[in-house]
Amino acid sequence: MGCHADDLLDLILQAGYNKDNIQRRLDELRDFMSEETALFFLARELDIDVGSFLVNSEMSEEIEIDYDEFRVNISELTEGMTNIVVLGRIKKVFPMHNFTRKDGTSDVVRSFIINDNTGECKVVLWGIRNVKVSESKFFKFNEVIRIIADYSKLSNYNNIEKMELHVGFKGKIILAPGDVDYSRIPKLDESLGNDSPNQNAPKIREFTPIAELHKYDGFFSGKIKGKVLDIQPILPIKSKKNRDIKLLLKFTLSDGISTIIINAWNERSLECAKTISVGDNIELYNVIIKFDKYLHDKVLNLHSKSILNKINEIN
Predict the structure, then answer these.
(1) For residue 20, what are the CA distances in angstroms to 141, 153, 254?
(2) Closest Cα to residue 9, out of 29, 49, 36, 47?
(3) Residue predicted with more confidence, 76 or 262
(4) Strand-pair partners of 75
(5) 139 vs 40: which has the higher pLDDT
(6) What is the mean pLDDT of residues 45-68?
(7) What is the tens place of the pLDDT at every residue in 143-161?
């Protein structure tokens, strides 16, 4: 072990942890990172402060994700997304319906149309907690509303597939949120109040070329495909905002025309180290696009809500 590794091991032992258990965990991690990085990872798992051991940490920092950064334009919705934040205006409200669950209990469901100036979609509210908000006198045409939906789903309307957002136990709706500049959400024309559901629903795009990612910033829900060209070792990084230690794995993705660097943080770094190899074809979505001032280029950041799947081919 190097100097830092020895000191880190001593620190973990001083905290009262068994040396044999530590060694078993290090053996599990050694295939994916250096011994020193594995000790940083283990210390982080055990909630031990090791910030003073980290050097040259100013080159990177973990992206701090604001809750509203997850907001997605309706035009960018795809099937299978989860924990989706949408902000827009109510266009049409449908009647409430009672239904009986498989276990024999009764519940209620209600739906409405939301428009955010990029498109519109149907929102389905499940359960009395969510439906109760729709009973407010302020739940009406042109009111601003924030949706935190459980998931997105394709449904069929007159043989046309349309996107829906479903708000259930994990979801939430916020009527007239107080942290929004309403002037940036154009009001709907009064004549649109009775339009049919999803009339202006966005077309579903299969994937976004890497070359087009450079014009985006923040949360991006579209699907990205490519081949893994290289994978760098996991490194410990000190956050600039505090002394917390983060783990970072970088890899390069190419779609045959353009390339982009992808950052996988903390548990996602170990997950990527275990599951992907150079030459693998992958698809991913729900990422954060950010300008890296050291690379002078855009990079993709994987976070807890990002999805990464291995695929057979990218064409």
Answers:
(1) 64, 48, 42
(2) 36
(3) 262
(4) none
(5) 139
(6) 52
(7) 999 999 989 998 877 677 7
Banded model confidence at residue 197, pLDDT cuts 50, 70, 90? very low
Q: What is the pLDDT of residue 3?
A: 47
For the record, the structure tokens of 218 come out as: 């923040």
Which option is the CATH number for 79-192: 3.40.190.10, 3.30.420.150, 2.40.50.140, 3.40.47.10? 2.40.50.140
What is d(CA 41, CA 199) in angstroms, rounded to the nearest whole number? Answer: 50
CB 280 within 8 A of CB 272: no
> What is the rounded distance in angstroms from the CA atom of residue 45 to the CA atom of residue 29?
12
List where CATH 2.40.50.140 sits in the chain: 79-192, 210-311
Residue recorded with tokens 């990029």: 118
Q: What is the CATH number of domain 210-311?
A: 2.40.50.140
Burial 118-134 (b: 16+ CB within 10 A, else e): ebbbbbbbbeeebbebb
